[in-house]
Amino acid sequence: MKTKFSWIIIPFFLLTLLSLGIFVSGTWAAETVKTNGSLTFTELVPTVNPMTWDIDDWVWKHGYDTNFVMEHLIVGDLQKGPRGSKKFTFENNAWIPLDIQKGELLEKWEVKKKPLQLILHLRKGVLWQEKPFMKAREIVADDVIYTANRLKKSPKAIPLYMDFVGKMEAPDKYTVVIDMPEFAADWYYRLGWGYYDGIQAPEQEKGPGGPKQWQNLTGTGPYMLTEYKDGHSQTYMRNPNYWGSETIGGKKYKLPLNDKIVMMLIKDESTRITALRTGKLDLMMAVDWKYYDELKKNVPQLKWARHLGTGNFTVALRMDKKPFNDIRVRRAMNLAVNKQEIIKSMFGGNAELHTYPFPPTFKEVYTPLDKLPPAVRELYTYNPEKAKKLLAEAGYPNGFAFKAQVSNASQVGLDIAAMVVAYLDKVGVKLELETMDYPSYMSRMFRKNHSEGYFFANDHGGPYSNLRKNYLTGQTWNPHMMSDPYVDKTWQETVENPNLTDKQATEAMKKLSIYISEQVPCIILPTSYFYTAWWPWVKNYYGEIRTGAHQSGPIISRIWVDEEMKKKMGY
After folding, report:
1. Of the candidates 91, 71, 317, which has an alpha carbon nearest to the alpha carbon of residue 192?
2. Which of 118, 179, 184, 252 could form a disulfide with 167 if both were Cys (CB 3.0 to 4.6 A apart)?
3. Phi-psi region of 348 (alpha: psi -120 to 50; beta: other; left: phi over 0)
4. Who's near 385: CB < 8 A, 6+ residues apart?
């Protein structure tokens, strides 16, 4: 009876699949890709307006807003992620290991040691988008040189960042030769897929009002910026001359796969969740963990991916000022804060107290907590009595008072800050919060006139950039004001040594990160999980977030929206 039943069921199952067009000639048939859809979505930071459209300003958010338009030299290979070999997760903000990288505007590249040179070979036939002030034309080597010079010569350039770029020449239209006065082990991050290095057209300066006007933004990317509504949205339309393609189900399609994308700017969190719930958002890249259970239950059609936060939230302690120039005080600040209780009460268990400053997703450089020196492991424990003892030893038996800036762009950040205030109060330390809008908050750090404390989301960057930007003397993103000769010397000697393998260099960064942790530059706080959610009509998406520093363009351009399914589902 069992065998007979099986033979009855199987043909019926196959007939059903055939009737649905899912099974063809012994293989699973791919869905028909429809390339006339429109995607509405929010990025990881949907609360912050564009801050500039010009690379000369060296603003981290530039990549969020321009990467659909402006391409980079190098990109992460998505086929090595969830949609392919699953070797890499594509959830880090700014870390693409060497073996995951491929050319975007480059066909290939070479690093020569004698003489020390970087040789870049451009992809041929890639066109700039046409604008009123420029005709569509092929991107050439001189455009790359222009971009690198604009970055290097900007008065806002980050110290050390572009020092490895020396004389640049274009022996032909498609080749750039860069002499390197010093080696840079992370050159590909600084010039290839980092925060600031989208290749910008020289003609953008000729547009009305100059390169800082959104109307003048041009590039070689899959989309063109056609509308910007301050505090509301950014609309991008298909670039009909885009060079890229994607093979789906054995068939090649020109990219992008949607006619239009709309990136929403929605500051209110509940409004964002309502927009997702009602289908007004097709994709929401960052959903706070606290909404997951309810949405999973009441909107079961949504698809999900879970990610560990892309930055350590900390309180940076100014090591150049009293009282935090004393390591005993900095240690006391950590012991005074009950981090496990924050995970439980604030995050409902949806957070990790992973070792600082690298996340577990940086497998090459991450050190598990149980492998750290005892003095570092102690920083992750709660011991208010020892905190008081350390404060007394440092000359503060009755505690002290200090201020700290915190951004109002994140309610979670504000809530954690309030908890830190309460914990420190128990050991006699009075913390006064100065809540600021995001631009003002950032300006305080850039100008180095922030207070003794500064609530800081330490974006992970990559192993090299993380340690450089946050801990080297004089760096823009160093709110700790760390100035340690050993850190400066070790970092530079490692990164500038062309004879080290990538494995040897990253191992050196791993050891240096432990030394930095031993100096206690901050109050370490938990890092929460968050979710990415999308509706089933969002096709060819696998939960990836980044293919470079704040770059989702290659991911978004490969999505197509099944408008017919969306309509049938009542949205």
Report:
1. 71
2. 179
3. left
4. none
d(CA 116, CA 230): 46
Q: Which helix (H) or strand (E) holds 284?
A: strand 283-288
CB 496 within 8 A of CB 184: yes
Question: Which tokens in the block code for residue 500?
Answer: 């080290």
Q: What is the mean pLDDT of residues 295-304?
A: 98
Residue 381 burial (CB count, 10 A): 12
* The residue to which tokens 């908050």 are assigned: 441
Q: How far apart are CA 6 and CA 556, in angstroms?
A: 43
For 543, the token pair is 């939960």
- Average pLDDT over the chain reads 92
pLDDT per position as a tens digit, 172-202: 999 999 999 999 999 999 999 999 999 999 9
Of 435, 419, 429, give the one whose Cα is nearest residue 384: 429
Superfamily (CATH H level) for 311-528: Dipeptide-binding Protein; Domain 3 (3.10.105.10)
Count CB neighbours of 82 within 10 A: 17
First to last CA, the chain: 46
Query: Where are the chain's structural domains?
Result: 37-265+535-563, 311-528
Residues 172, 141: contact at Cβ < 8 Å?
yes
**Geometric angle at alpha carbon 40, from 38 and 46, rounded to 5°:** 155
Cα separation, 462 vs 97, in Å, equals 9
Question: Would you say residue 137 has pLDDT above 80?
Answer: yes
Residue in 46, 49, 69 with CA at minimum distance from that of residue 59: 49
Residues in CB range of 553: below 8 A, 6 or more apart:
67, 68, 71, 221, 222, 223, 547
Higher pLDDT, 28 or 518: 518
Give dist(CA 516, CA 547) in Å, integer: 28
What is the distance, to the nearest Å, from the Cα of residue 3 to the centroid of all Cα atoms in its chain?
55
How far is Cα 261 from Cα 324, in angstroms, rounded to an integer?
A: 47
118 pLDDT more than 60: yes
Q: What is the DSSP string of 194-222?
A: SSS-----GGGGGSTT-TTSGGG---SSS
Q: What is the DSSP string of 57-100?
A: G--TTHHHHHTTTS--SEEE-GGGTTTTT-S----SSS---GGG
CATH code: domain 37-265+535-563 is 3.40.190.10
Please give the pLDDT value at position 93: 79
How buried is 151 (Cβ within 10 angstroms: 0-12 exposed, 13-18 middle, 19+ buried)?
A: buried
User: Interhelix angle for 502-519 vs 463-471, to 10°?
Assistant: 30
Can you read off the two tokens belonging to residue 453?
Answer: 């404390």
Q: Is the pLDDT of residue 15 over 90?
A: no
- Taken as a whole, the chain contains a residue count of 571
Is the pLDDT score of 203 beyond 90?
Answer: yes
Using CA atoms, how far apart are residues 545 and 552, in angstroms rounded to an integer? 6
Express the helix, strand and coil content of the chain in percent, nearest 5 each: 35, 25, 45
The percent of residues in the chain predicted with pLDDT above 90, rounded, is 84
Tokens of 233: 């949205």
Q: Tell me the pTM.
A: 0.86
The predicted model gives 166-171 an average pLDDT of 98
